[in-house]
Design brief:
The chain has 231 residues and is α/β, with parallel strands linked by helices. The chain has eight helices and eleven strands. 28% of the residues lie in helices and 20% in strands. The chain is elongated and about 50 Å long.
């Protein structure tokens, strides 16, 4: 069975109604990114940050996977599929994708602020229990914080993602500008000659990438076209 790795960015979830992680104005859901998505912001005002992610979670539970998410999940009928996503939502999982690597953390989880990656203190939140009271402590006595890779923090899953891309027979990139590192560097791990499909309406990205087919459409329309091309 051929292996497909699908790398997705903010453009994947836009059709579901979620704002992109950081728009050109440096705001995320009308909040300055510096205040809600950096370690400095967390230290300065953990209550603001906790409430911001409470709001995002409620919003996320009210949106549904779009057709693009569902078509990615459907690839598993014919291929060994790994999704590597820059998105913090769980829409790939909701759509049925079995193997999802989150590069930038997971909105539906909270963790220790002393050791983000200690699985003992990570909690998965549910739709009817998705808010964290500011000041709530993790099992190690530190404040519970969002399980999000803040700007400037290391991306722990990048090595795992690179290993998956190295093994891919086909690489599909959806809705990412290929400018945010380290995720943008993943394309360079593909074996020479690996067919790469880029689904994104922007005409200017993907320049200089070998074996690239650019499907200049949004996630859902682009995935429909890709399914035809892969037949």
């Amino acid at each position: 069975m051929k292996k497909i790795v699908v790398l997705t960015g903010a453009g994947m979830s836009v059709e579901s109604g979620l704002k992109t992680f950081r728009d050109a104005d440096g705001l995320w859901e009308n909040y300055p990114v510096q205040k809600v998505a950096t370690h400095e912001g967390w230290l300065a005002d953990p209550t603001l940050v906790t409430n911001f992610y409470n709001m995002l979670r409620k919003k996320c539970w009210n949106v549904k996977p779009n057709e693009g998410h569902k078509l990615v999940a459907e690839l598993e009928k014919d291929y060994d599929v790994t999704v590597v996503t820059q998105n913090v939502d769980n829409l790939h999982e909701q759509a049925g994708s079995k193997k999802v690597i989150h590069l930038h953390g997971e909105l539906m989880k909270v963790c220790s602020s002393r050791d983000v990656d200690d699985p003992r203190y990570q909690q998965l939140l549910t739709p009817d229990n998705c808010e964290i009271e500011p000041g709530t402590l993790a099992g190690d006595g530190s404040l519970l914080r969002p399980f999000i890779v803040f700007f400037g923090e290391a991306v722990p899953n990048i090595t795992l993602a690179a290993e998956e891309v190295q093994q891919a027979d086909i690489l599909v990139i959806i809705g990412t500008s290929l400018v945010v590192y380290p995720a943008a560097g993943l394309v360079h791990y593909a074996k020479p000659g690996t067919p790469i499909y880029l689904i994104d309406p922007s005409p200017s990205i993907g320049m200089g990438i070998q074996n690239l087919t650019h499907i200049q459409k949004g996630a859902s329309d682009g995935m429909r076209e890709l399914k035809e091309l892969l037949k």
